Amino acid sequence: MSSAVKTPLLQVRNLRVEFPTRRGVLTAVDDLSFDIHEGEVLGVVGESGAGKSMTGTAVIGLLEPPGRIAGGEVLLRGRRIDNLPYEELRRIRGKEIGMIFQDPLTSLNPLYTVGRQLVETIRTHSDLSEGRAKARAVELLAEVGIPAPERRVNQYPHQFSGGMRQRVVIALALCANPRLVIADEPTTALDVSIQAQIISLLKRLCSEHGAAVMLITHDMGVIAETADRVAVMYAGRLAEIGPVKDVVKHARHPYTHGLMGSIPIVGQDLDRLTQIDGSMPRLSEIPPGCPFHPRCPRVFEPCDQERPDPIPVENSEVACWLYDDKRSGGGGHG
Amino acid sequence: MFAFLVRRLLQSIVVMLVVGLVAFSLFNFVGDPIHNMVGQEATTEQREELREQLGLNDPFPLQFARFVANAAQGEFGISYRMARPVDVVIAERLPATLELAFVSAFFALFLGVSAGVYAALNRYGWTSRLVMTISLIGVSLPTFLIGILLIWIFAVQLQWLPSFGRGDVVQVGAWRTGFLTESGLRALILPAITLGLFQLTLIMRLVRAEMLEVLRTDYIKFARARGLSNRAINFGHALKNTLVPVITITGLQLGSIIAFAIITETVFQWPGVGLLFIIAIQFVDIPVMAAYLMLIALFFVVINLIVDLLYYAVDPRLRVEAGSARAH
Ligand SMILES: Nc1ncnc2c1ncn2[C@@H]1O[C@H](COP(=O)(O)OP(=O)(O)OP(=O)(O)O)[C@@H](O)[C@H]1O
Ligand code: SF4
Ligand SMILES: [Mg+2]
């Protein structure tokens, strides 16, 4: 694989996201590292509150105060972007990194036509004339599968159905040809019957535009069908990351194992697949050592004392003491 | 759109009729109009004759219908106190009130929206906290107190501005304006601030709250994620959405500026219709009081209609509902 030698498109190194609150500082993302390569689809899964959205928003630099990046770094094509001044980061948003949010119904400004919103975004990142940008907007609408785009371009968001609006949102996210698109549960708010269409559209368009995707989802079926690699998050930390086949079929981390207990189908919610007793701890109550240890079926002596760092296992990385030969004598590989 | 307008117009007419009924009742329930018109020495026959002449013995609905018909033409009879037609007296004094209200409204709207936007965009800055605190004073101090305070500071102590009256006025056709002379403009400043301050703070707090709400929405987050400039986001996307709900309240506030002018005009001896009304109350000058009530109601109704139309112009969701109903 050539991606192994090339600089990854996105490198997240020991990322830490904190929220100062009245009752102390909460750590929503803790010591998280992962890479995304050019053109790759990285699925990000984990229970609600695992820190998936926080990670995505931190990468694109849109954490809402008082939330902040308290440590680590984010590199885009080897260049650090987490400490850039606001204006420089703004120019990266949309042009280098795009983001799609969960709810297409509320993602568009209700007072402007979709055409105006597209033209504005296109012209922010290029020096196309108004007319050329409008033509480009029509092209984009056609590309995302909106019928009669010449007419639709002059319509307001409320004149589109939910699925059509999410297509408009995708067109908006892609209109400046970003290298990376962060899609945060892009279909959760949609009707089940159109979720698959939207996901395959997103995947097809991104691969045509050569954009990598960070696909945050609860839907293991979507991951199995769409992602090249998967990152599993638990309590703000990385549990396991690896090629989709390995993670889905041969989960190594006991938590992933629990998640994959049944064969996933598109449209099924991850929370209903969870076969592990208990629930993820609240941010204020993350236990010491391995955060999963109170629920882990294979817990042993280092687990409640020391925190496991991700350990390379074949093509994956797993944050579990079972894979540290010195600790477990290789017992985890079975 | 057309049906909407018609419905609104009908509602307005109902409102005007109800206010008309109240104004009309003044004639019958507050004192005896005959008593107010004739002298002490008039005989009972004379009084009865006049009563018959004025139609005061007719049935109530007929009298009311006559009142409405006259009011619709701006006829409110003769002022008891001044013995002049009410419509003429009001027409003379209306420019003073309208000019004062216009300047106050402009001042309140312009500064209120700017300060509100500023306070929302710099939520954590100390200047916006300061502005918010000061605005609390503006909301809680009664208007007459603000007026007296301003007079004391700027007219009595500093002697920069006049404390009462309208200054020199110039007659332009039927309109007597204070805008064209220096003393007229100087005389406007204190009353306009007094009258507008409450609305200013109210509008500012409202705009700030709405704007903060809008800045939290998904479409603003998505606009940021697309790398739009702060300027485009704050003023192109957020402000316009803020104004949709703000328009209604602001419209009503502007209506009440004209109504509240009573107090300001009294404090500053401003020769407008508000002062006229206060004097009319003192003399139980019913025709003037009735005419004033109808006039204020008319202002409210007209402003409400304009607000509805503005709503239509700003929010495509309302517009297209009607459009698509036609198209499909
Ligand atoms: N403003 C905030 N202040 C404090 N904590 C917050 C704030 N916003 C989010 N959090 C916490 O940060 C943690 C991570 O949230 P995040 O939204 O990233 O979870 P998620 O994995 O995306 O979950 P979901 O699947 O529900 O979207 C959660 O525990 C949440 O309670
Ligand atoms: S480190 Fe220990 S507790 Fe954590 S997942 Fe591995 S075995 Fe379970
Ligand atoms: Mg989330």
Automatic annotation (TrEMBL), chain B:
Residues 94-311 form the ABC transmembrane type-1 domain. It is found in: Cell membrane. Keywords: Cell membrane, Membrane, Transmembrane, Transmembrane helix, Transport. The chain crosses the membrane at residues 12-30, 100-121, 133-155, 188-207, 243-262, 268-284, 291-314. PROSITE patterns: ABC_TM1. The keyword Membrane applies. It comes from the Bacteria. Gene3D superfamilies: MetI-like. It is a multi-pass membrane protein. This is ABC transporter permease.
